[in-house]
Amino acid sequence: MEVEAAGNVQVESDAEPSSNCSSEDEEELISKRVSIFKNLSFEEGLRYWALLSSLPHVWLNLLLELIREKTHFALPKDARTLLHTNRIPATITSTAGGRMWYNGVQRSLEQRSSIVIMPSSISLNISIDGIPLHRSSREAFWPILISINELPKEAPLIVAIYSGQKKPQSMEGFLRCFVDEMNVILANGTTIRGQTIAVAVRCIIADAPARAMVKGAASFNARQGCLKCTALGTKNAVTGAVVFESTNASKRSDEDFRLERYPDHHRTRSPLLDLVNFDMIEDVIVSDRLHLIDLGVMRKLLQGWRAVYEHFLLFYCAITLLSSSVHKRNWVQAGQMLIQFVSKFNDVYSEGYVTSNVHNLVHVYDEVAKFGALGSLSAYPFENELQHIKNMLRNGYKGCNR
Question: Entry's PANTHER family (predicted)?
Fold first, then answer.
């Protein structure tokens, strides 16, 4: 992978702010970016600005020529020199039906430690999702990203990137290096800049198709598609959607999943089964703010706003309570509100709309009780990082190598 870095400066994605970012967050981000320039030389500041704005090399070359002609600054002639582009070919392996660049967990943490102070103990959120690269091509990236839960304002780290015309065809080829490295780190901790750091895996945050893929489980729209419970989906004759109307089905367990006691739920063996201290049911979360709530259930509710306002209030109040630890004493009540919300869904919208997304609201309270408020279970930072990865490509030639 051809990497361009601004020295010891973290370059954040220039994607649009996510919908859960407040104006205070945006002002803080702008202030942070402006303050960075105060500690940089002119050349370093120019490099940071060029990376942040994803300026094409051809225009940056013209700017460098203008600055050299009109000022006393001795700058490189070529944008690649200014941007510290790594011209050493990346190690790319063929696997899972595509090509894979593996940066590694250890190396990713070491790279981030150059700009932040690492806590003595960290827990990692893992995210896996696909992002198409070009409209004219079927090639897509499937990065493995991690974020440090104790450093919520830090951008995700890139552990690996898979590139292919389809999604990874083998989870063994896609995940094995990551699982093996994580097990070593989980057992021994990691030493970074002389500091010993204890590492744990907190959870996996992904959208519904990716969750099923990495677990080797049935798709979200299959009859046995719920990852959390044994509720059975039925295909609605009118909408064609697979709906899950039960709110009290028995919950799946890590032990039963590992023993393959859910025959219609299992599809293939996943390397995640070898990840130590990892619960295959509880630690692959469905309560992702981006995919489940904002782009999932909320979007569906907005389609019939006037007729469903009172029903919507159940959803809105429950999500508000579950989004902050300040309301922790009301989380049980919020969970009951979500169950009531799902139970009444057919009455409000008619039958055929309690899809996997709506059904998963039944399981939100359990995950919030284990992991914390919904804000810490969001795919927004990972989605922004996916756009950042995509923007690093200067053109479509050999995407994974670049």
Answer: AGAP000105-PA, PROTEIN, PUTATIVE-RELATED
Tokens of 366: 């359990």
The distance between the two most distant Cα atoms of the chain, rounded to a whole number of Å, is 73
Instruction: Of 211, 359, 207, 380, give the one whose Cα is nearest residue 281.
Output: 211
Q: Is 190 helix (H, G, I), strand (E, B) or coil?
A: strand
Q: Are 200 and 185 in contact (CB under 8 A)?
A: no
Bridge-based pairing of strands 157-164 and 98-102 is: antiparallel
Q: Which two tokens stand for residue 266?
A: 């299992």
Paired strand residues for 195:
192
Positive or negative, the CA dihedral 390, 392, 395, 401 is negative
- The tokens describing 35, both together, are 């303050």
Helix/strand/coil percentages in the chain, nearest 5: 45, 15, 40
Give residue-wise pLDDT tens across range 323-332: 999 999 999 9
Residues 6 or more apart in contact with residue 83 via CB below 8 angstroms: 4, 5, 47, 50, 51, 60
Contact 91, 161 (CB under 8 A): no
Kindly state the average pLDDT of the residues 158-183: 95
Residue 277 Ramachandran class (φ > 0 left, ψ -120 to 50 alpha, else beta): left
What percent of the chain is predicted at pLDDT more than 70?
A: 85
Amino acid at 152: P
Structure tokens at 59: 């225009």
Query: What's the CA gap between 132 and 167, in Å, rounded?
Result: 10
Evaluate whether 215 touches 284 at the Cβ level (below 8 Å). Answer: yes
pLDDT (tens digit per residue) in 229-288? 999 999 988 888 899 999 999 999 999 999 999 999 999 999 999 999 999 999 999 999
Asked whether the CA dihedral 38, 41, 43, 44 is positive or negative, the reply is negative
Average pLDDT of the chain? 85
Distance CA 31, CA 49 (A): 14
Structure tokens given for 32 = 């942070």
Q: What is the pLDDT of residue 79?
A: 83
**Measured between alpha carbons, how far is 163 from 177 in angstroms, rounded to an integer?**
16
